[in-house]
Design a protein that fits this description.
It is built from ten helices and eleven strands. It has about 450 residues and is of the alpha+beta class.
Amino acid sequence: ALRRLSHYLLAHYQKGTRPVRDWRTTTNVAIDLMVYAILSVDEKNQVLTTYIWYRQHWTDEFLRWDPTRFDNLTQISLPVESIWVPDILINEFVDVGKSPHVPYVYVSHHGEVQNLKPIQVMTACSLDIYNFPFDVQNCSLTFTSWLHHIRDINLSLWRQPELVKFDRSVFMNQGEWELLYVLSRFQEFSVKSSDSYAEMKFYVVIRRRPLFYTVNLLLPSIFLMVMDIVGFYLPPNSGERVSFKITLLLGYSVFLIIVSDTLPATAVGTPLIGTYFVVCMALLVISLMETILIVRLVHKQDLQPHVPEWVKRLLLEQATVLLCIRDRKKFSRSRTQSSDISRQVDNNDSTAKLNHYGCEDPRECETVGGARLAPAFAGQVEGSPLMHGVLREITAIRQFLEKREEFRDVAHEWLQVGYVLDVLLFRAYLVAVLAYSITLGTLWSVWRDA
């Protein structure tokens, strides 16, 4: 019965012409697809590779028979090369995939032909990676007849759009991408006012699973930034802070080199996470520069000048109130003591200079130092070069000690200024990091839940 029916149908069949008895009759082709897997998403070349189950259905008026004449056969499979098949292609095709060849189609006794086949589709898609790794991609598959107008071949959807939209019955849901839904839309297309062509568009909407990239890209970067913030709690007059921040900066540079191959690369734009890494690197550099500035201020040097009055007034008085520093009274008190010490040092320097130059003559030493030396020793001082030398050495030692005390007070003033400035810059840096993190976290959360 199968041989007789096959010979009956194909003996005089002409597969080169559209299978209608009246040429005015339009051949309606119903199509359907189910996404089986997302094989790859090439962001650099803007190519999406998917594996779909594709189905076609149309009516062939020359493939009809009476089942009672052929042992009640209502359906038969025929070679696809032996019958007419509509020339429906995908407009976005960029390469021929490795699709298995299905050599047969099913034909019912009413002339309804069903062509079912799996296809590996490599299509061009406009991929937007700005939201990586929380990106959602929308790629279209446009099915149309390459030659026949809509008067000859019209397209329709085999199933209801709602059934196609959320059909994940055959989708392999274990890869990097998850299928959200598949939208379908019919439209007519014409070129330069010529005859129209029927098009059936399927929009495949997929979303990337961000867990892998969150663990391997975002968390290490966040940990390094947290360690940079914790580094501010090292003493500002300690050189270890500079070494610590340089180590963090080198570690972050190595981290960026490692993850550079993981980030998607396109010539169109840069993902937001790439900007995030660049800004984090810039924040680390700013933090290192701030640390170098503070260490430079608080480092004790012999030729360091006094702290300017406007700096004292701005940082030791106003900034301490603004920053709510608890021991700001100590800063004000230390400032007053430093001023008194400076005036005392100036007076002592004048006295020391007077004694130094007056003691060159024993009589002047007696006049200047008479209040301190008894008259019984005045003659001994005038006649003793040894005692005269001792007085000069004592005067020099006193000048040296006063000068060292003055340098120590200046260094202490700069240490206070550096401490207040360090707190001010640290809080500004912390506010900038928190604002930047909250903004990115909010954006990524919105994109993730959209």
